[in-house]
């Protein structure tokens, strides 16, 4: 970014407008009787993904013309810009494909700005839950539900009754989880779809989100930004090595641990 480009707060405000617009488009498809159409050639998820990405990518390019956009659908078609430690965007227009298809409402639209291989800011919208999370790293994180005023969110410190885990309904390796938890008292497991697991930790409704299954960088960047802005962090499995971006040409992530306020 240059001095002539908008500041971080202006960028964040514009991202909230863009993500709401994309969310409305996703919801138009979600509200249709898409069950029947999954038998035809284009699945509703692909349709929703493409429609949302077609809103988000040009809007980001207009906002910061020199900043490359890495978006899930374009990447699937091989349209991937070169990125490294400069500014770039990561976009997952519909994260939680299974949640969308199962109509359990826990899918999200994700936009994050990266720099130096770390998130700078990000937004996660769950349009079917009418809930928006956003954060500016080293500043604050917020949550807005429906028309209510935004509330600041933050991670919670260690709870005496034990750890609440945020977990995927489908991904995870029970043996690795058991090994990771060794010695830590477990209070409960809260299942959630898509990047909402990061948001549960960011809000202090869960303490840890260990991910011992595959994800791509666009699945994690926006949730990572929200979590880090709320006082949390993400590390590799060792609990120490910082989790970074622009790692590989295919944008696949290694296993990771998303931490709230516990050590
Ligand atoms: N084999 C694989 N490679 C890369 N990412 C995978 C994967 N299997 C699942 N994922 C990612 O995990 C996400 C779903 O996680 P969860 O079940 O925790 O909600 C998927 O998001 P999409 O639904 O956007 O495809 C997908 O990106
Ligand atoms: Mg995804």
Name the CATH class of the largest domain.
Answer: Alpha Beta
- Helix share of residues? 25-40%
Question: Total strand count, please?
Answer: 12
**Radius of gyration from the CA trace?**
18 Å
Question: How would a textbook summarize the main sheet?
Answer: 7 strands, mixed
The total count of helices amounts to 8
User: Which residues form runs of ≥5 with pLDDT under 50?
Assistant: none
Shape descriptor reads globular
When the domains are counted, the total is 2
Order of helices and strands: HHHEHEHEEEEEEHEHEHEE
**CATH architecture title of the largest domain:** 2-Layer Sandwich
Given helix and strand content, the structural type is: alpha+beta
What are the distinct ligands in this entry? adenosine-3'-5'-diphosphate, magnesium ion
- Overall average pLDDT: 93
The CATH superfamily of the largest domain bears the name Fructose-1,6-Bisphosphatase, subunit A, domain 1
CATH topology of the largest domain: Fructose-1,6-Bisphosphatase, Chain A, domain 1
Strand order, sheet with most strands = 1-2-3-4-5-6-7
């Amino acid at each position: 970014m240059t001095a002539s480009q908008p500041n971080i707060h202006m960028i964040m405000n514009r991202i909230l407008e863009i993500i709401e617009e994309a969310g409305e488009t996703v919801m138009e498809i979600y509200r249709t009787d898409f069950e029947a159409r999954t038998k035809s050639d284009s699945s509703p998820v692909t349709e929703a993904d493409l429609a949302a990405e077609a809103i988000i990518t040009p809007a980001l390019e207009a906002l910061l013309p020199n900043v490359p956009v890495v978006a899930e659908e374009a990447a699937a078609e091989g349209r991937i810009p070169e990125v490294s430690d400069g500014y770039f965007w990561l976009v997952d227009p519909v994260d939680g494909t299974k949640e969308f298809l199962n109509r359990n409402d826990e899918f999200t639209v994700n936009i994050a700005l990266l720099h130096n291989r770390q998130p700078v800011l990000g937004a996660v919208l769950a349009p079917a839950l009418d809930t928006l999370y956003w954060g500016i790293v080293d500043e604050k994180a917020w949550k807005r539900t429906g028309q209510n005023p935004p509330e600041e969110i933050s991670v919670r410190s260690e709870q005496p009754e034990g750890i609440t885990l945020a977990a995927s309904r489908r991904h995870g390796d029970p043996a690795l989880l058991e090994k990771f938890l060794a010695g830590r008292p477990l209070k409960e497991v809260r299942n959630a779809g898509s990047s909402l697991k990061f948001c549960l930790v960011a809000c202090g409704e869960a303490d840890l989100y260990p991910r011992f299954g595959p994800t791509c960088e666009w699945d994690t960047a926006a949730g990572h930004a929200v979590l880090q802005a709320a006082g949390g962090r993400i590390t590799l499995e060792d609990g120490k090595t910082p989790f970074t971006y622009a790692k590989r040409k295919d944008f696949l992530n290694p296993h990771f641990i998303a931490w709230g306020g516990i050590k």
